[in-house]
Design brief:
Elements (H helix, E strand, L loop, with lengths): L15 H19 L4 H13 L3 H14 L5 H12 L3 H18 L2 H12 L2
Helix pairs in contact: 1-2, 2-3, 3-4, 4-5, 5-6
Amino acid sequence: MGRAECRGASGHNGDTKGRQVMSRLAKLESLLASEPDDVFLNYSLAMELAKAKRPEEALGRFDRVAELDPDYIASYFHKGKTLLQMGDRERAKEALALGIERAKGCGDQHAVSEMSELLSTL
């Protein structure tokens, strides 16, 4: 018989979360292969890449979302947050300012407030 697999106190393997993220990434990439212009799939992949600590790839996907739908407001906020996590305050400010502009154009006051609040801390 093989050696028993190590498990945490919850009874799950310690890398379960990492495998779930990788599984979601693989599923999203597979779906995008057949629907590369799907805005929601691109946004979802950007968010999963950010969670997986792959910020450069996440930024590329956030840019793709803006290219496909410049009014997909959440992508600007999360692109700004990703840039901040990378230590790039100036580009984060640019992303947030553009997001605020787009959100105003869409009449999304909640997004304007949220991004303005983050921008004011920079």
